[in-house]
Design brief:
The chain contains 15 helices and eleven strands. It is of the alpha/beta class. Helix 6 (184-207) crosses helix 7.
Length: 399
Amino acid sequence: MTHLPALHGLKVIDLSRVLAGPLAAQILADLGADVLKIERPGKGDDTREWAPPFLTPNKDGPLENSAYFWSCNRGKKSLTADIGTDAGRDLVLRLALDADVLIENYKVGTLARYGLDYETLAKDNPRLIYCSITGFGQTGPYRKKPGYDTIVQAMGGLMSITGSAADDEADSGGGGPTKSGVAVADQMTALYASVAILAALQERQSSGLGQAIDMSLLDVQVASLTNIGLNFLATGKVPVRQGNRLATVYPSDTFRCSDGDIMLIVGNDAQYRRFCDAMGVPELAIDTRFASNASRLQHVSELDPLLRQIFARMSLIDCQTALDAVGVPAAPINDLAAVFKDPQVMARGMVRTTKREDGSEVRSLANPIRMSRSRVMDNRGAPKLGEHTDLAADGWPQS
C-alpha cells in the first residue's frame, strides 16, 4: 500500500528567493505540500543565475541548470508573475484565496505597497498562514536593513566563537573570526520557519484562523548560541575562539595522525580511561593531573602535547579502529569526496538521483526525514522557469 505524504493537499505560495525562504518551502514540498514558486519573468529566483557550477555538462539552459537553485527548490511548480503590474498582482491575489501558506522574504513593507501583505490577504482568506523571513524581523531599529547570512553570523556572535584559537586572551595570535562553511543562519531560519508554519497549521485546526509569522535571521542566530549564549548570560564572561576544542570536556579536538586528521571527543571520565588504554598510555588515566575532566581542563596545556605525540605516531585507520573498539567517539576529517563514499551515508540514502526530461540524471542531497508511513518526496527535480504559468490561468495549477 502506498501512503500519501504527510502534507498532501496543503497549498503553499513561495514568494521568496535565494536560500532561507526557498529552503523552508522545499521542506514543505518534500513532505508533500503543493508548492507554487512565483518568480520574476525572464530572470526568476536570483540563484538561477548563480552558476557555474551547473548540474550537468549541458549549459544550454543556464537558468534551469544552477546547482544552487536545485539545492532548495526541488518539487515545486514555477509560475512567472510581475507583481509590479496589475496582471501579476491580480494573479497572486487570486492564488492566495485558495492558499494555506504563503512564504515571503521581501524587505519590510515592500509587499504592502502591492496589496500583498498579510493584513490585506487575510481579509479575503482568514485561514492563510503568512510567513515573513527577513534579516532582522518586522520590528526594531534594523527592520529595514538588508540582512544576509554572513552579516548575521557576524552580528549574532557566531563568527566571534568560530575559527582558530587565539594564542592568548587578548586574541592576538588567532586566525581571526571565521564564518561557517555553509550558510547556517539561513538554514536554521528555514528549519524554524517550517516548524512555525506546521505549528500554525495545527493551531488553525481549533481556531479556524491563520496568522502572521515573523522570522528573523538574527533572532535565529542569537537563539542558536544555546549553551554558549547561556554561559555568557550566567557568568558575563565573553567566550573566545578555541578552534575545534570544546570548552566543556577534554580531550576534545582535532589531532594529526601520521597520515591524516581525526576529530576526538572524550565525553566523560570512563571514556577517558578507555581512551588511554586503547592508545597504549594507561599511565595517563591515573595521573592526578588528568584523572577527572575538571583536572584535565585545568591542565590542558600539559596533556595536549602528550596526546599529540601519541597520535602522530599512529595511522588514522589504526587510531580509528582502536577508538571504535572501546566506544570512544572519533571520526576522520572527511572532505566531500569521502563523505559521499562513506558507507553510513550511502546506507541511509543521502543522495537522490532524479531523471530530467532530456534523459540526463541529476544527483542531489536527500531530505534527512524518515517516516514509517508517510513518504518523503525528495526525488523530484526543480521546476523550469515559468513551467506552470499557463496552468494557473483558471486558479491554482493542477499537476
